[in-house]
Structure formats: structure tokens, C-alpha cells
Amino acid sequence: MFQRLDLREFDTSFTFAGRAIPAREGENLAAAILRADIKAFRSTPRSGAPRGPYCMMGVCFECLVTVDGEPNRQACLETVHGGMVVEPQAGAAEINR
Amino acid sequence: MTAPFDVAIIGAGPAGMAAAVMARKQGLSCVVFDEAGRPGGQIYRAVTERPERDRQDILGPDYYAGLDLVEAFQRSGAEHRAGTMVWSIAEGEIHWRSRSGSGVTFARRIVAAAGAMERPFPLRGWTLPGVMTAGAAQILLKSAGLVEDDIVFVGCGPLLYLVAAQYCRAGHPPRLVIETTPRRNLGAALPHLPRALLAARYLFKGLGLIRELRAAGVRIERGVEQVELEGEDAIRGVRWRSGGRWQRADTGRVALHQGVVPNVNLAMALRCRHLWDERQRCWRPALDEWNRSSQPWLWIAGDEAGIAGAVSARLSGAIAALDIARDLGAIDERERNRAGTPLRAALGRDRAVRPFLETLYRPSDVFVVPQADDVIICRCEEVTRGEIARVVKEGAAGPNQAKGFLRCGMGPCQGRMCGHTVTETMSALSGKGQEEIGYFRQRMPIKPITTGEIAASAPFDGAGA
């Protein structure tokens, strides 16, 4: 499990799959989810296998989540805002009609 | 339409920042696009932030060496478009997307400094949640202050040792380091040692890292010939074979690394000529001595031009910007040469260590080309080694036919995570060289975007034609 070297207090929270996750405003979203001991962020479109962040730098697209209803967001490139609603992405994103 | 910038730079790492500083010094107008919120690239990521600046004892002086460059960049007068992803480039125009919308920016010359990524490490189980790259573990340490108390490092190369040592300094020595460097590499590398002594600093740094791991009591398994990662829904353990004997350890986190390769998607999509670099085992763009690519309006600097590290990246960025200043007529050839000669000499000295390092840490064939049929090569589309082997047998000549049959390289990462493995695997299976096998044919957009974003970025100002 990830341990924190930065011991500043959390000043906000958001939800991932309905679970409240404490965080600091403006921090990296993928890091905040990983710190909550969550490893799988999405499942694949082909087999449904679970996946989690691999590269943390925007290359691998394994950390895809839905942020406030918008699918296909790379959690490693997003920052945390208080109250944001993050959902794991199950398979391919649905097209908004 | 607004007046174009003289120079647009893609990437705000050491090469991009140095190119911007030099371009401004030569009086050129300059815009820099970067996906990250703050300048620094991966190597100097979050270097300007507190409390990261208080972690000097963990991250080491080479990390903080980026601080003066970031500050020079911020003072340079270059326009910094942070948090902005470039998804397409053509001569004179850059199409981008940011949180606030999408658009197009015009520029007379372009520098691509998109850096490097870690070489794919296709092991059985490498797609399990909890498996990441050593670079990812370092990003979590640098930018979020997170360390995993139960981590196993697997692979080879300087970054693997650096991150493991940084973990020791943070008071969380890794559980285990599984070293996949083939034993024979050292003998092959020794002839390059005398030249490497010109940049001996790097050698001492490397030896120092290994000493740190020993002093922290980290268990290091050497000469490992096979590795498998175990788990159902997440990583549970790692198995490895050395000297014919299998061993196993439980772990909830694995960090993989076997070197870095240039980020090729942008330059490949622009049809820049590329070569296969056999010692680095990767594709790199063909460039002239001032880093100009085969597209006369595009220069490529930093690790995107071939892996050489942060110090060389900085020098090559400045060299590219000088040549652009000459190309645009801001300085003449004599002035460019006068300013550029010492930079190129410094570049030669800094790179002196590369042949030794590249030979010593050249990844083994068995880790670059998966040996078992069930190992996933394309993570996005879950294409296995067995499926690639089947289409090679059926006569697929290269990655593009494999892509047509199997969809490998067609997922959201656009081949970044499998491209090098597909080239290497098809080469190993067919007996043809990597250059002959080739790479996926890249096309714009080089990042997934929506049709709405494409429409919003059309290069017209609404007046109609």
C-alpha cells in the first residue's frame, strides 16, 4: 500500500465508484485514487479484464475514468477538484447522444 | 488570423525549455505546448513545487539541477500553454486541446521535444492492476510524495536503480530488485569504458546507487532469465528463474523498467525518416547535425531525437533553436556556428557515456520479445504473442498487416505500448531485420479526441472561403 511522505492535511474530497476519497485540491487524480488503495481503474473493452495506471504520464491509457459524466479521461493527467464524481470506465465508453 | 509565432515547441521538458530560452535570446517569438500543468517534463516534474523542494535528500541533486532551467524558461518571455495536448501538426500549424477548449496556433518553424517513454516490458501478467513502470513509481514519488511499502523492482537500466535508491532514501527500501541485465553485457560493454570515462560522473553516480541499495540491505537477484507476474484481479506475486531455478515472492506492487525509447508517434505521423538504432533497440528520427528532421520545417530535440538524458536534451534544444534562428534569418551561419560549436562539443562529452551504458543495459532478447504465446503484447486490444506469431506464419509482412488482422496498435494508446514489441517480435519470428519489418504507419490525430474538438479547431476564422 502506498504511504504518504507529504503529511499536509487533506482539504477536500471526491468520489470514486461512489466511495468518498480524501484529497488535496489540485493534486493528481490518479495518485489520489491509488493512495486510497484502489488498483483497478477500469476494465477492458475486449475481455473485461481489470486495469490500473501503468505509466502515470499520459502514454498508456490504462487509467481511463469518467469524470463528472465525461468518459475517456486519463486520471494521470487530471487534477482533483472537491466534489468531483469519478467513475471507473467499464469497457468502451458509451457515445453521448 | 493572428500573426504566426516564429517557433512553436512541443514539450516543456529540458529540451523544449532550453529551445525556448535560446529562441527568445535570438529575438524569436515562441510558444510552448505541454500536457502537464507545470514545466519540467518527466525528469524535472514538479521541481518548482513545495514541499517537493524539501525532498532534496530523497530525489538528489540531478533533479534539482532542473530548477534554474525552469526559472530561465519562465523568465524567457516564451508563451507557455500548460495543460494543452497537441493532437495534430502540419507545416505551419499546431492543433491542440486544453481544458478550456480546442484550437489551432500558427508557427513558422516547429521543434518536437516530446521526450521518451519506457520501453514496453511484455511479461506474463504485466497488465495486472498494481503493475506499473519504475518511471510511474518515480512520478508518484516526485509529484505526490507516495512510496509503496511492498514493491518489487524488475528489469534493467539506470532508472531502475535510481528509483530503488530513492525509495531507500525515503525510508522504504524495496522488498526486492530482480535484475534482468544479461551477464554477458558487461564484457561487451567494457571496450566502451575508456570513452565513458569522459563523462565519468555518470559512472560514479551509477555505482553510488548500487552501493546505496546494498547499504540499505536490499535483496538483489541477478542474472534473471525469466520473470512472470501472478494474480487474478491484481498483482499478488512474482516468479523468476535464474541459473535454471525458479523462485517466488509475494508482492502487491511491481515496478518494471528496461530502458526508455523515443516518443515516435508525432514524428512518424509527419513522415519524418526514421532509423532503427540497434544499440538502443528503438526507432529514432534521422536528423542533421543541427537536429533538423527530414521535414525542413521541423526540428527534433531531447530524448525524442534519440535517448541521451536530460543534460544532452538541454543542449540539443538550444542547438535546434540556434539553427532555427539562422533559418529564419535572425542570425547568420557564422553566428550560429560561433554560438553552437561549444554546445555541440559539450553534447559530445555528455554523450560519451552512452555507448557503454547502452551496451551494458541493452535489454535481453527474451524480455523484448515474449517467449510464451499467451503473453499480451498489445495491452489496449489484448493481442497476444501467439496471435502475432500466427499472422507472421500466414505471411503478414509487417506491423501494418498485423494491425489489419488483429487490431494490435489500434486502441487508445495508438501503438505506444506495443509498437516496439510488435516490430521486435515480427523481426525475431521472420528472421528479417527491424528496419525491414518497419513500424505501425502513424497518422494524425496522434491522441484520441472527439469529432467536436476537431471541428472546433478548424483553421478558419469564420469568414468562409
UniProtKB/TrEMBL annotation, chain A:
Transmembrane spans: none
Domain of life (superkingdom): Bacteria
Pfam families: Fer2_4 (PF13510)
InterPro entries: 2Fe-2S-bd_N, 2Fe-2S_ferredoxin-like_sf
Keyword Oxidoreductase assigned: yes
Gene Ontology terms, MF aspect: iron-sulfur cluster binding; oxidoreductase activity
Sorted UniProt keywords: Oxidoreductase
Gene3D superfamilies in the record: 2Fe-2S iron-sulphur cluster binding domain, sarcosine oxidase, alpha subunit, N-terminal domain
Name under which the protein is recorded: (2Fe-2S)-binding protein
